[in-house]
Specification:
The protein has 13 helices and no strands. It is mostly helical. The protein has a single domain (38-219, 226-419), classed as Up-down Bundle (Growth Hormone, Chain: A), CATH 1.20.1250.20. The longest helix has 31 residues, at 38-68.
């Protein structure tokens, strides 16, 4: 078995996948060493700009909904609408990623998201958007994300060697969180100067770069054993829920996803309501969230070795409890800024730990399905949580709901720490050398 920390003496020699052999000298094994591979570097850069566009669209959609309706539930459902497609279609997307060329799957998804975003921009510019039409379009973009995500994450193995996977996954998380730092502040400025249609149009344009890189990239064909979609999905489900370490990871990711949604889905309503903020205030909140994630990501390897998987989740959970408590007690958006920074740091600790843990324990033949099941479970928890917490906020108010989310997070962590402990470092890790 390979050790998850990758630092034991017997693991110093590189485990080079044939799809990346010869692309670069043996990797240094540090946080940024995956950038030595041209394919990874090109995809990462293009994906960064696409992530910035996606973040702009998310900011625009959330803020537009606060202007279209006073319902906390509908505002929370903007967040849920991006997650529900992953729950509904993600597992099938994983089977598609395993059954077909992953690059082609990503191309199809990116082109579809470009089309949906362009139509949304046009309708918003014309002033024809209603709350439910806005939810429909965010569902459309979310469906494209659900199709793209398993193929994109599984394709990382075709971009770097296996012993670089934790670093590559962390760098992809950094890309997303750089976008979360730049995008919200930029989105707040653009929306205040023009309107949300400009943010939607920017997102549509941002897909062009990643589409161009995917057309340029010609990975070595992988051996594909195609199965009908439903039997292929069944194989993935049987493996994930029959494999004890992965099953425990999924239980933890669902519970944490449900709890974290209390923060994620209610921030727009808090800023526009009790905190009396503007779209720029909302952008700053999301920007600090991204900065917290970026500054934390390079230390994930060290924390994994020092604390183990369980320790990282404990730290992230405590940080989110702090963030929800501070947000619920804040009087102004300035008072809430520390909560955003700490929440961003906790977010990358928790989600990157889950993602890496699943990737290292899933066979390559069903990797897309395993990742899609993980995402369906995690984002399904977030979607359900967004609905529940939004409904509770309409009933009892935003501060009460944030306190309730913090209490639920503490209780869920304590119970699952006993009944579904995270795998020990190296437990269930598949050696692909």
């Amino acid at each position: 078995m390979a050790r998850e920390d990758g630092k034991a003496p017997e693991m110093i020699e590189a485990i080079v996948d044939k799809t990346t052999a010869g692309l670069a000298p043996p990797p240094l094994g540090n946080t940024f060493s995956p950038f030595r591979y041209p394919v990874f570097r090109a995809i990462w850069t293009a994906n960064l700009f696409s992530n910035i566009g996606g973040t702009l669209q998310g900011v625009g959609a959330a803020w537009l909904m606060t202007e279209l309706t006073s319902s906390h539930l509908l505002v929370a459902l903007v967040q849920a609408s991006a997650s529900v497609p992953i729950l509904l279609f993600g597992v099938f997307a994983g089977a598609i990623a395993d059954n077909y060329d992953r690059r082609q799957v990503m191309l199809a998804a990116q082109i579809a998201m470009l089309t949906v975003s362009a139509i949304l921009a046009a309708l918003a510019y014309a002033g024809w958007i209603t709350p439910y039409l806005l939810l429909a379009f965010t569902l459309g973009v979310g469906t494209g994300t659900a199709l793209n995500s398993p193929a994109w994450q599984a394709s990382v193995r075709q971009q770097v060697p296996q012993d670089e996977l934790p670093q590559a996954i962390a760098l992809n998380s950094i890309s997303f969180n750089i976008a979360r730092s730049i995008g919200p502040a930029l989105g707040g400025v653009l929306i205040s100067i023009w309107n949300v249609s400009f943010a939607f149009a920017f997102n549509a344009i941002s897909y062009i770069g990643i589409i161009g890189v995917l057309l340029w990239w010609k990975p070595e064909p992988r051996k594909i054993e195609r199965r009908p979609i439903l039997p292929a999905v069944a194989v993935g489900i049987r493996f994930c829920f029959g494999n004890d370490p992965i099953r425990r990871i999924l239980m933890r990711s669902f519970a944490l996803g449900f709890a974290l949604a209390a923060y994620q889905s209610l921030v727009p309503a808090m800023v526009s309501g009790p905190l009396h903020g503007t779209e720029i205030s909302y952008g700053l909140m999301l920007g600090l969230f991204g900065i917290g994630s970026i500054l934390t990501a390079p230390f994930l390897g060290l924390l994994r070795r020092k604390l183990g998987l369980e320790g990282i989740l404990a730290l992230g959970s405590v940080m989110f409890v702090f963030s929800m408590t501070v947000l619920s007690l804040a009087d102004t958006s300035v008072d809430a800024l520390p909560a955003a920074f700490v929440a961003g740091s906790a977010w990358v600790l928790i989600l990157t730990t889950f993602n890496t843990a699943v990737q290292l324990r899933a066979p390559d033949a069903i990797l897309g399905r395993c990742l899609s099941i993980y995402q369906a479970v995690t984002f399904g928890g977030m979607a359900l949580g967004s609905w529940i917490w939004g409904s509770l906020a309409d009933w009892r108010g935003l501060p009460f709901t944030l306190h309730a989310g913090a209490v639920f997070l503490i209780a869920a962590f304590a119970l699952l720490r006993v009944f579904a402990p995270m795998p020990r470092l190296g437990e269930g890790v598949i050696d692909r050398a």
